[in-house]
Amino acid sequence: MGFADYGYGGNRARWRLLALWITGTHFSVSSGVGFLALFGVSVQTGVIMLEYINQLRARRYSIEDAAVEGAVLRLRPIMMTMLVATLGLLPAALSHAIGSDSQRPFAIVIVGGLIAALIMSVFLLPTLYVWVAGDHDVLPASEEGSRWRARGLGVIG
What we know:
Elements: H1 18-23, H2 29-58, H3 63-94, H4 104-132, H5 143-150
Helix pairs in contact: 2-3, 2-4, 3-4
């Protein structure tokens, strides 16, 4: 029994990442490492986005305004993070030279996943936040209020 018998090769591979499927690349150890790296970057991006939206809500923005403003203001940092990694790994993803067989799956997973993560974190995450968030959520203290309390002056407003 080979890999094809277990559903890892040929036409039986149903659960591959879309980028691997499009390029016809099989799942390997290096693409698995790419999944781990991609997972870490995506979670970090999502946490940063949600934290910023929560900070805006602590400053008395409405849920919808905070989600839109957070997505717009975090677009550039998220896009820069994604584009640096994507453009850096694009030559490895497109390479067919000697020795590229071990690096290409890693690069394909990262490039394809980061493009999808960019779209999801900028459009899908704020939309889901608006659906899930409520008016009675526990939010972090506003930075402005923290500075006033640290000086012993109380919160204005």
